[in-house]
Amino acid sequence: MLRSISILVVIIWGVTPAAAQSLERAEGAYFRGDYALAMRLMQPLAEQGDEHAQYLVGFMYDRGQGVSEDPAKAAKWYSLAAKRGHPHAQNNLGVLYKNGRGVPKHYVQAYQWFDLAASGYLPAEFGHRERAILNQQDIASQMTPDEISEAKELAKKFRDSDEGSLEYRPPRVR
């Protein structure tokens, strides 16, 4: 019975018990402030395609936690997670495009990622959703109506694509 439940969890959530434990250990190291260990544990998970690990690796490069601050590497990891539907990564990638950190300053891209983040957060993540909306409103004040239309169209195309059909689920750790 327990084996059947474990297999069902793997099928539904796409997370193996070992991967969930590894993510749990990496997050534990992060929250203890052992950023170097967290990065060593998180990096292989990110490289294997775990979108939450990709986001966290990007976050650590963005903040210089356990590694030297590197906005370009942050953008790379945020982008991978953002394209898999991770709204925190989408919002943070939008901030990088807004400010030209690690990527060229690009208001259309920033608006697109803020739009996707705002629509991707879960209801319980209300404050995060509001932050994405405020970021989107802030960048819109610096854009032309044509640029806003272009950004909205890019967000729509992303949502309609196979990539945009991925549904964000926060990590299932104890």
What's the short story on this structure?
The chain has 174 residues and is mainly alpha-helical. The protein contains nine helices and no strands. The chain has two domains: 1-84; 86-161, no CATH class.
Q: Helix count?
A: 9
Order of helices and strands: HHHHHHHHH
Number of β-strand runs:
0
Largest sheet: none
Residue share in helix: over 70%
Count of spatially separate domains = 2
Strand content: under 5%
Distance between the termini: 20 Å
Mean pLDDT: 86
Cα gyration radius (Å): 17 Å
Give me the secondary-structure category.
mainly alpha
List segments where confidence is low: pLDDT < 50 over at least 5 consecutive residues.
1-15
Silhouette:
globular
What descriptive keywords fit this protein?
2 domains, 9 helices, mainly alpha, disordered N terminus, 174 residues
Task: Please give a structural write-up.
The chain is an all-alpha fold and 174 residues long. It has 2 domains: 1-84; 86-161, no CATH class. It is built from 9 helices and no strands. It has helices at residues 2-13, 17-31, 35-47, 51-63, 71-83, 87-99, 107-120, 126-140, 145-160. The longest helix has 16 residues, at 145-160. The protein is globular, with a radius of gyration of 17 Å. Mean pLDDT is 86; it is low at 1-15.
